[in-house]
Every structure is written in structure tokens, then in C-alpha cells.
Amino acid sequence: MLEVNDIVTAYGKIEALKGVDLAVSQGQVTCLLGPNGAGKTTLMMTIAGILRPKRGSIRFNGQDIAGKPARMIVEQGIVLVPENRLVFRDMTVEENLMAGAFSRSDGKTVQSDLEAMYERFPHLQERSTQYAGTLSGGEQQMLAISRALMARPRLLLMDEPSLGLAPLIVEDIFRIIRELNDEGMTVFVVEQNARMALQVADHFYLIEQGKVVFDGTPGEMEEDEVIKRAYLGKKI
Amino acid sequence: MDFYYGLLQIIGMHTILGLSAYIVLLTGQVTLAQAGFFAIGAYIAGMLTVLAGWHLVPSMLVAAVVSGTVACLVGFPALRIKGLMLVVATMAFGEAVRLFWFNFDYQRSKGEALVGPLGGEGFKQIRYFPENGWTTGEVATFVWIWVALIMAALWWIDRSRAGAVLRAVGEDELAAQSVGINLTAVKVTAFAVGGFIAGIGGAIYAHYTTHIEHSNFGVILATFAIAYPILGGLTNVVGTLLAVIFIQGFLVEGLRFLGDWRNLLFGALIVLAMNVRPRGLIDERAMLFLRRMFGLAKRGTNA
Predict the structure, then answer these.
(1) Is B270 on the interface with A (CB under 8 A)?
(2) Is A105 touching B (CB cutoff 8 A)?
(3) How far apart are CA B219 and CA B215, in angstroms?
(4) Which residue in A51, A78, A152, B26 is deepest, having the highest Cβ count within 10 Å?
């Protein structure tokens, strides 16, 4: 579904991605692991069109989308849940959700999608007229996810959805990822919590210093000595 | 009575100036360029009525379109700059506009006298109102029709999807991009609309004073332009109007009896107002209170 080929993204002269190749298959949950500064967020923002790659191609269902503006990529069906949630703090929960549908023009289905979100996240309905900045971290993450879903994505990008959240909330979030995936959503998630990710992901990539250094299934990952030590905390 | 009409006119014009900054501030851009757009509107409209002999209303609209177009051009470079750097860049633009009019001569003879902008001496005899026999009351009404039109338009924008888009950009550009908002289009449009509104305000101002010169359009005016919406709060256009009434009506006119001490108290009261109401005179809580009072419950689902 998504093929990233030899993507190089730079901040000025510093290359954060030095030729990344990876692929996300339809209907799967793909997980990207990596230490801080490896380029995970840069990759997500490059796919989402917020950063422009210096070279390389990104193909989504056969179409090259590398370097296209963020607005067009959202219209193509790729929506990012940014790192640190980034809800619109001074807007109400409902306004945040409606903001997710800015790229859509079908007014009636937007309304029914809104109700579907409230059904999936009853907490958000209770707080629909509250300012998003007053929600707890977990609720804000749920809001950020449902705001992304309001755009009706075909591929959902999630940048560290568990960042800074309590273990119980993290479990909630992974339950939602599994639910979405069961309903047919393709998900590409950045995650530091490899243990949690093992429960939902179909495929893993490990990125270090701007390059993919591991690519494999959960089974293969558990066999890999380096990953075992660094990410799963098992002794060898 | 004329004093009060005059005060009403001043409040009206400053409200238009404040509203021109309001829409730009909504997108999170702090601009000191509004005095520049105000100046462009003032000079262009003045030249059209005095030199070309046009009716006031089309002159105002042409002046507004010109300053809106210039604002659009300023908006593009502003996309690459944020925060304090944008303040400096827009201030530099405003000064460039001021200095342009400082050096601009274009005089023509009208009857026996020469009329038109004359550099540092300014542009005198913009006498559209007295020549056509408008009373101060009529001028005040004219000003307030424009204020009402602009406020209604901005109120409507605020309540529509466009307003939500502007606010989304102002709150978080990254999040706005990830829901598919085109940052370039939004920021440039906000600048252009702000420039258009400032142009209308400037056009009225030129005909109200009948004599404009470059020094009217300095950094002080630009600072006032953003002070009104910031003091009034960015939740609502009414806040800007209240802030203008507070500053021009109460602080400038109401405290005149204090003589030279007025200016000192003036600053102190603004500092005090911002401390008591850090999010503006009309903030979210005030809006909630008002909505409940009028039984409007919550902001519509299609906001």
C-alpha cells in the first residue's frame, strides 16, 4: 500500500533520514522502532507531507506522493496523529473533531462519523463542549486519534501514541489500534514500547541514525539478539 | 454634540483598524504592518476623491483592494517567519510604507490651488465631507455603517468553517497541517483580508481628518492596531470594540482631566486590565456566561 524508497530528508545540511526503504502492507499494523533521534518522527512528517524529502520516492497505492503538500496527502487518505497529541487546546472537543473533517466536503456523513466517534469514545461525548486543553493526557490522545479518523483515512500514521501516558491508558490505546485494524484500517505506528507493539504489530522495522537496520515479523524480531537486549529487555 | 460625534468617529475608525489586526492574529501571526495598510488606504482613497474627483465609496473600495493586494504580497514572505521575527519584519514593512509617503509627491492644480500628497508636508485638503455638505452626525453614521458591516462579516467568518480553520492554524500549525489545512492559503488570505479592512479604515481616516501625513502612520498606530484585539480577547469581534471604547473613550478622553498624568495612568491601566483578564476582556469564560445567559447553550455543532 505504502512504499518508501531511498528517502532522504534533511534539516539544512544535516540529513535525518539517509535513504530509508520500507513498505506498509494493506490491512496490517506496521511498527517502527528506534532510539531517540533515529529519524522516526522525521519519517512520519515526510510521509504526511509536512516535511519535504531531498530525494527518494513515496508511493501510495501506486501514486508518487513524495513532496506533495500535506493537504493533498490528507485528501489521498493518509492522516497523521502527531507526536505529543497536539490537539487544538482552545477549541472544544467537538470543534477538534470537526477540524479533522476539514478536508472533506460531504456534510451529512461527517455528522454521522461524529456520532460514531462518540460511540467509540464515550468519554469524548461527555466532554464534547469542554476545551480540549482541559482533558487528561489519555483523553487528548483519544481525541487526537478520533480527529484523525474524522478525515476517513485509508492509512493511519501514529507517532508515539503512548508517549507520556500511564500503562493502563497505553493498553487502551493499543486496544483501539487492534480494533481499528480488525475493522480493516491499515496502521503505521511509531512506538518505543516494543513489548506493547508486539501484541498488535504484523511487521516491524527498526531505524537507527536515519537508516533501516532491521526488517521482519514479530517472530523474527524476538529472535534478534540486538533487539532482544535493547528493546525487549531480555538477558542473553 | 459635535464632540461626541467626533469621538464616535474615532472609536469607529480605530475599531476597523483593530479588526484588521484581529483576523491576522487569529492565525497566530503578530503583525505591525497594519498601520502601513491603513496608510495605503488613506492616501489612495484621498487621491481618488481629491485628484480624480471620485465618489467616496468606490474610492474606499479601490483603496481597500490596493492595500489588500499589498498585504497579500507581504503575507508570502511572512510565511517563512514566525513570532518575534515576524513582528520585526512587519514593522520594517510598515516603516517602509511610511517613508514611501514621506517621499511621495504628486500634486495637481485644482482651481487656483495645488492639491495632492506633498512628501513630508503631507496631503492636505481632503475635503470630501465639507464639500458635499456632510454634517458630523452623518459622517459618524457613515463610519458606523462600515464598522457594522465589517463586524458582521468577521462575526460570520468566525462562526463558519473558515473561522475554525483560522483558529486551528493559530493554535498549532503542525496539527493544522496534519488535518489537511493548507497553511500558505490560510495565512496569506488572513493577511489579505486584514489589509483590505485596514484600507477601508485608512480611507475613512483620511477624509475624517482632511489632512494626513506620514507621521500619522508610525509604529504607535501599528501597536494600537494589535493592542485592541489582544486586550479585547480573540474569542470574539465584540472584544475588539470594547477594547477601543476602553482605550479611546475612557483612557484617552475620559481621563483628560488628569492632564499630563493621563499617559502614565493609561499604560498602568492597560497593564492592570491584562493582568485581571489575561485572555482579553471577552474571554472564553465570558462567552460561556453570555451564551448561558441568552440560552444559546453551546456553540453549534456545525461551527
Answers:
(1) no
(2) no
(3) 9
(4) A78
